[in-house]
Each structure stands twice: as C-alpha cells, then as structure tokens.
Design goal:
Elements: E1 24-30, H1 36-50, E2 57-63, H2 75-82, H3 100-103, E3 106-109, H4 112-121, E4 126-128, H5 149-176
Parallel strand pairs: 1-2, 1-3, 3-4
Helix pairs in contact: 1-5, 2-5
Length: 182
C-alpha cells in the first residue's frame, strides 16, 4: 500500500485500466499518434512510476488523424525511446474521439494545430504540453516524422522537461479532489 493522495486501499503495483477507474487521467494527442503522443505517453508513465503514482493515473495517447490507426509507434521514435530506457512496443495508434474529451481529466496536445482540432471537439478542454515547461523557449513539440533521427531526440528532450511540470499539475489536482475509490 502507499500513502499517496487518493490511494485508498489499492496495492502499489495496481495500474488503472481505464480513465474511469483512475484517480486522474491524461490523454496525449498529436497528429498521427505514432511519434510525439506515444512518446509522451511512455515518458509520462515512467515519470509517474518514478514518483510512485502510476497506480493513480491512467495515461493514453491518440491522434487527431486516422491514417495510422492500429499501427505501432514510428520505429525511429521507438529507438529513441529505447535508448532512454522506455518501451513503446505495446502502443498502437488510435484516433481521438469526442468521448475522450469527457473521459479524460487532462487532454494534452503537442502543438497549436492539434489544440485547434481538439477545440472543435470540446472548446476549452485541451492544453499544449509545453505550457507545463515555462522555461522552454518554444511553444510546440515539433513533428519529427519527416525529419531525421535527431528530431526524435529533440522531441524526447522537450517531453521529458514538460513531463515534470505536468507531474506537478497532476499532484496538485490529486491533492485538491476527493478520491474516486473512497
């Protein structure tokens, strides 16, 4: 057992299987869900695990486009993540749905274009990931899809910084709300 906010009687190795059975849920969104958003999903799962909070937060990713649905992460993204100890092999692309905008507590987009697409589904529900990294001098996580391998490392660098700021936001939200399990 753990004494984390909202932990209730859940064992420390528990992992929520849906947004509905988690204390809080986060959805990362990019264009095709094969580069940036699955990378953010893998990074944030590791950040939560390291913080002892993986049993409280459900994390998923999706794309605003449908052309990669069912496909694994881009091999370049997977290689860059693996070099940092992250496994993305089980992740498969899916398209964001209108229901996601209600099911997830935090909907976090990689760039302004994806925020705009999400705003059409549910105005005021999406945040940009780099809002959680105020010291970073760019606003968008760049899409590395049409570039080289180094673009995937840049994406990881930005996501890792922002994930720590997002963790602080998640911790704040968990301490301000009653537990779903209690």
């Amino acid at each position: 057992m753990t004494g984390s906010p909202g932990s209730g009687s859940r064992p420390a190795d528990y992992r929520p299987s849906s947004p509905e059975n988690a204390e809080l849920s986060v959805l990362f969104v990019c264009l095709g869900n094969i580069c940036r958003s699955p990378t953010a999903e893998a990074v944030f799962r590791k950040v939560l695990e390291d913080a002892g909070m993986a049993h409280l937060v459900y994390v998923d990713s999706a794309g605003t486009g449908s052309w990669h649905v069912g496909k694994p992460a881009d091999p370049r993204a997977s290689r860059a993540a693996a070099a940092r100890g992250l496994d993305m092999s089980s992740l498969r692309a899916r398209q964001v749905t209108p229901a996601d905008m209600d099911r997830f507590d935090l909907v976090v987009a990689m760039d302004a274009a994806n925020v705009a697409a999400l705003e059409r589904l549910a105005p005021g529900r999406a945040a940009r990931l780099l809002e959680f990294a105020p010291d970073v001098r760019v606003e968008d996580v760049p899409d590395p899809y049409f570039g080289g391998e180094d673009g995937f490392d840049e994406v990881l660098d930005l996501i890792e910084v922002a994930a720590l700021g997002l963790l602080a936001e998640v911790q704040s939200r968990l301490t301000q709300r009653p537990s779903r399990g209690e």
